[in-house]
Amino acid sequence: MSYWTAWLKANYPVEFMTASMSLDKGNTDKLAIFKQDCNNLEIEILRPDVNKSEPDFAVEDGAVRYALSALKGVGEAAMETVVCERNANGAFKDVFDFAERVDPKALNKRQVQGLASAGGFESLGVNRASMHGSAETILRYAQTIKADRESGQTGLFGGADMVEQNRPPLADVPEWPQLEKLAFEFKAVGFYLSAHPLDPRMKMLERLGVTPLGKIEMLMQDCVAMRPKIAGVLIGKQERIAKSGNKFAFLQISDPTGVMEVMIFSELLATARDMLVTGTNLLIDLDVQQKDDQVRVNGTNISLLDEAIKDKTRQTYIELINTQSIDQVKEILTTDGEGKAFVTFTVPINDNKYADIRLSKQYNLCPETMTAIQNLDGVESVRDV
Q: Which CATH entry fits the domain spanning 199-305: 3.30.110.30, 2.40.50.140, 3.40.50.300, 3.40.50.12160?
């Protein structure tokens, strides 16, 4: 059996990963591992989409399309209802078409918001924040349409044209900032799918001597012990009490290459407790040992990643969609004052050509400043290189 499994993975990797993820679609921890495997195999995972996804994971153009029913709290029966309607009567034209066609009894507010948080409605021309905030409006509209149809009022008072005129406005809100968007996505999916909060900092982490989580298992194949430094987002913590009465904890740490569980003992738990808040970026020294075919991962020191990065000299690129936001960026940089970050603007010129403009001064680019710049309308990305 293991031979055939390895053969399928080697010869039909996309199909193999699709089938594996469908079998474990209810287990978020396993899906996170499969996502890491897909990254290693350079297989793209496409976001969930009410117009393209199936209830299960599916192969699409050499990639894996994420399963609707694998999202947290949406329910398999409800997603089958959505897909059956789409298969029977064609793709949904917009969110109102979706509301007019899908039985409102099949969906509730939490399910609509879960789909929105994961990007399930983006192909219908509405951003995640707007759809999330419009969930109740959409459901009330769907219920009204259904009631009118059952009473015969839709046909009596004008049909499709009247239905379109009565469509309510959606929440007029801009898309969430990138980090907030990823936080909502994490809540809906169970792990970071479209991007990772530490993506812009990978070059900086490399200069700090950080070992990517995805490499540790491979490195341990050639040794029995190592003491790497890792960096990641704390995505979970479980505290336990040993027989001795001392507390210890298991931390789930996520970086762009994977997820790892780290055990910390009572002394480190006590000193680091204030830092162990879900969503915090941490820098952790590890003691990794292999014994009896098991790898044990213990944390020996924990610090705040943002503090470790703050005083390091680095090169930061700010990619602009247009030049209209330059003055706003400069205002933010000036407010925070000079520091140790060289800043380069990547500015569009024409015909898909870009120019790099490096500022003469160095600036203080703390995480809050980078987030503030990233949230400006004309900024495409902010990243360390």
A: 2.40.50.140
Are residues 132 and 181 in contact, defined by beta-carbon separation less than 8 angstroms?
no
Strand locations in the chain (E): 45-46, 58-60, 63-65, 225-226, 229-241, 247-255, 258-264, 281-291, 294-304, 314-320, 338-348, 354-363, 379-384
The dihedral formed by the CA atoms of 368, 370, 371 and 372, expressed in degrees to the nearest 10: 80
| Residue 59 contacts residue 43 (beta carbons within 8 Å) | no
CATH fold, domain 313-384, is Alpha-Beta Plaits (3.30.70)
Closest CA to 301 of 241, 214, 231: 231
Amino acid, res. 323: T
Contact 309, 316 (CB under 8 A): no
Relative to beta strand 63-65, strand 58-60 is antiparallel
Q: Nearest Cα to 250, choosing from 280, 276, 231?
A: 276
Count the neighbouring beta carbons within 10 Å of the beta carbon of residue 105: 11
Sequence ranges of the domains in the chain: 2-189, 199-305, 313-384
Least confident of 66-75, 117-126, 196-205: 196-205
d(CA 205, CA 212): 9
pLDDT in tens, 293-319: 788 999 999 999 988 887 776 788 999
User: Residue 288 pairs with which residues in a beta bridge?
Assistant: 226, 297
pLDDT digits (tens, 9 = 90+) for 243-259: 999 999 999 999 998 88
